[in-house]
Design brief:
Blueprint: H1 9-25, E1 32-34, H2 35-42, H3 46-55, E2 62-63, E3 70-73, H4 76-88, H5 93-101, H6 105-141, E4 152-156, E5 160-168, H7 174-188, E6 199-202, E7 212-219, E8 230-234, E9 238-247, H8 253-266, E10 270-272, E11 276-282, E12 294-303
Antiparallel strand pairs: 1-3, 2-3, 4-9, 5-7, 5-8, 6-7, 6-11, 9-12, 10-12, 11-12
Helix pairs in contact: 1-4
Keywords: Coiled coil, DNA-binding
Protein name: DNA-binding transcriptional MerR regulator
GO molecular function: DNA binding; DNA-binding transcription factor activity
């Protein structure tokens, strides 16, 4: 009966490492191999063995002081297979070194879980890149390089809001903030304004791929007691807010910002001031068809000739 038939490649590799480790521990004596012999038996190139030596992951069992030749022992095979397993699982050299020094079930489990989540996030980022490429290919096929959005100006009054502001891993994690805020509102039984839309404020002075400063806000009818990171506050009045409407999937938002760039070039009396906002009037929570999503982008601007008092 083949017990490994239902296991993944990584699971089979880990079992292989454990079996070799236990096999070596059960045998006595030391047998020394030349580096070429060790390379053939372990199916690891001499170049990689030298690299592991240089990085400190696997030092030879002995180095001939006259010739400089490297020699390896049978006992090092299990150690090498651990290195290969961790390398194939996406661990860096420094991460491999730490894990090898604490090769215990509990610690290894935690390390593998962390690496799993890291790879999962990387896959999500790559999937987003694929979507962008698909969109670009579609646009090229349809002979569309970008869609122009009209930019207008309006003033935004100060608003009484309940907000949650955090540094989050990336913009895709904004959904988690909204879930936290919604849960707090439900638990506290707060009275939310039905006449205003909720919105997000992006406080960073630049676009960042990680560790982004995002604040999600819901307009409330009255103030309350701030606690646990949930803050009741008045937003600042914005005298001149440039805004545009983006229709369709969230991937279209990038074209909306591109329209702002062209608009600012044509209206060079204005410059950006403060964090931009996004209001999702229609999204996954109230619209099944992504082509019908509606997002409003707002960017505060001021006259470049306004010197103040």
């Amino acid at each position: 009966m083949n017990l490994s038939s239902g296991l993944s490649y990584s699971e089979r590799k880990l079992i292989h490492v454990i079996v070799i480790d236990n096999f070596i521990k059960g045998r006595g004596g030391i047998f020394i191999f030349k580096i070429g012999e060790f390379s053939k038996l372990t199916q690891v190139s001499i170049r990689m063995l030298r690299y592991y030596d240089e990085t400190g992951l696997l030092k030879p069992a002995r180095i001939d002081k006259f010739t400089g030749y490297r020699f390896y022992s049978v006992e090092q095979i299990a150690h090498l297979h651990k290195i290969i397993f961790l390398r194939d699982s996406g661990f860096s050299v420094s991460e491999i070194a730490v894990t090898l020094n604490c090769w215990e079930d509990a610690f290894l489990t935690d390390q593998l879980k962390d690496k799993y989540l890291e790879i999962e996030r990387a896959i999500t980022r790559e999937q987003e890149r694929l979507k962008k490429i698909e969109t670009a290919l579609h646009d090229l096929t349809e002979r569309k390089t970008w869609v122009h959005y009209d930019v207008s100006l309006k003033s935004i009054p100060s608003l009484q809001v309940l907000s949650l502001r955090k540094i989050i891993p990336d913009y895709f994690s904004e959904e988690l903030l909204w879930k936290e805020l919604t849960r707090f509102i439900e638990e506290e039984g707060l009275n939310i304004s039905q006449n205003s839309s909720s919105f997000a404020i992006y406080h960073d002075d630049e676009y960042k791929e990680a560790n982004v400063d995002v604040e999600v806000c819901v307009v409330v009818n009255q103030s309350g007691i701030s606690k646990d990171g949930f803050t009741f506050r008045q937003t600042e009045k914005v005298d001149t807010m440039a805004y545009t409407w983006v229709y369709g999937p969230f991937e279209n938002i990038a074209s909306g910002y591109l329209s702002f760039a062209h608009w600012l070039q044509q209206h060079n009396q204005y410059r950006m001031k403060g964090g931009n906002r996004q209001i999702c009037h229609r999204g996954p929570w109230n619209e099944e068809n992504p082509d019908r999503y509606l997002t409003e982008i707002q960017i505060p601007v001021e006259s470049q000739f306004n010197t103040g008092d």
